[in-house]
Amino acid sequence: MIDAVLSARRDDDLVPLKATADLYIRTKDGRRYYFEMKSPMPNKGQCLEVTQRLLWFHLLAGESRPAVQAYFAMAYNPYGPKRSDYTWNFALNYTPFGEAVLIADEFWNIVGGKHAMEDLLSVYQEVGREKTKYMLDSLAFGF
């Protein structure tokens, strides 16, 4: 799909176009990552929209992979720890799942390095342990 979009690209457009990604990262070696963050259980329309947006990033940059990498990123996998555990049909059927979807640690490892997701979950657990009483008190008495 990326090749098809890039082959249709024109330099004589009269209207300048731009697109905003949910998250953009430029690495020290010049690679550009564009991430569209969505729920791990998107509906069909969201899947089609995010696929279109990923292609827009390549079109506007005028480059394919590896220089530009656009992904549909899911912060976690509600079905289990492995990619193969993921079973949400809309995402599987209406996105380029194998090429442009990152789930859980695949995403976090790009953003924060190896083991970033485990480190992030540890922080959440620590804060949860320290703030549980405060959160329960706020829920019960905060109104």
Descriptive tags:
single chain, 143 residues, alpha/beta, type ii restriction endonuclease, domain 2, four-stranded mixed β-sheet, 6 helices, elongated
What does this protein look like?
By secondary structure, the protein is of the alpha/beta class. It folds into 2 domains: 2-112, type ii restriction endonuclease, domain 2; 114-143. 48% of the residues lie in helices and 14% in strands. It is built from 6 helices and 4 strands. The chain has helices at 2-7, 44-61, 89-94, 97-100, 105-112, 116-141; strands spanning 23-26, 32-37, 68-74, 101-103. Strands 1-2-3-4 form a 4-stranded mixed β-sheet. A hairpin with a 5-residue loop joins β1 and β2. It starts with a helix and ends with a helix. The mean pLDDT is 90. Pfam families: RE_TdeIII (PF09520). One of its GO terms (molecular function) is endonuclease activity.
- Mean pLDDT over the residues: 90
How are the strands ordered across the major sheet? 1-2-3-4
**What is the SS-derived class?**
alpha/beta
Low-pLDDT stretches: none
Rounded to an integer, what's the Rg over CA atoms?
Answer: 19 Å
The CATH first-level class of the largest domain comes to Alpha Beta
Judging from the principal axes of the Cα atoms, what is the shape? elongated
Q: How many helical stretches? A: 6
CATH topology of the largest domain: type ii restriction endonuclease, domain 2
* Helical content (DSSP H or I, runs of 4+): 40-55%
**Would you list the SSEs in sequence order as H and E?**
HEEHEHHEHH
State the domain count: 2
For the termini, the CA-CA separation is 52 Å
Q: Can you name the CATH architecture of the largest domain?
A: 3-Layer(aba) Sandwich
Strand-residue fraction?
Answer: 5-15%
The profile of the biggest β sheet is: 4 strands, mixed
Number of E strands: 4
